[in-house]
Amino acid sequence: MADSDDLRDQFIDAAFRVAAEHGPAGLTVRRVAEAAGASTMGVYSGFGGRTGMLGALYARAFELLSAAMAAAARTGDALADVCALADAYRDFAVDSPSRYAFMFERSVVDFDPGPQLRARALDSTFGQLRAAVAAAVPPDRVERTAYLVWAAMHGMVGIELTHRDRTALPDWSIAEDWPGVYREGVRAVWHGLAAR
Question: Where is the HTH tetR-type domain (predicted)?
């Protein structure tokens, strides 16, 4: 069983490398197998095919994001904890934009992780944010408040990643301090929601 798990890990690691080099749309069975130094049959025997491989990659990517968020310092202060989770989320996206795109965009058009896998993935990440929000928000507002904070985080990260992929805009000072602008945005959204 360990050999089988090692082989799956080898393919998943290779798939991350392929996505980083060729973008998520470049995740073909042949390319991943070549990057893993194995035959295409390994993808079929280990994952049942490309869709299974992509599902495993999706699950692993969210495991990594969940671990990064779980490692964020917790203080017991809701705003500080939300900001720490937000920073972990942004750092994860900036460290590997292709992995982030695979997780949150339809960058592989013919892949849909399905509702069960998406629910597990989001519960492991969004659930951490929801728990931090719950420390300061009445129970009937936790889900909505956490969602609005997440949407702001996601939007700001998306804008930053889009900007990083293109020629820099002249005289656009925001790009000089992405982390600071991001934190300011998270705090502003939090204060606006907490004041309701």
Answer: 5-65
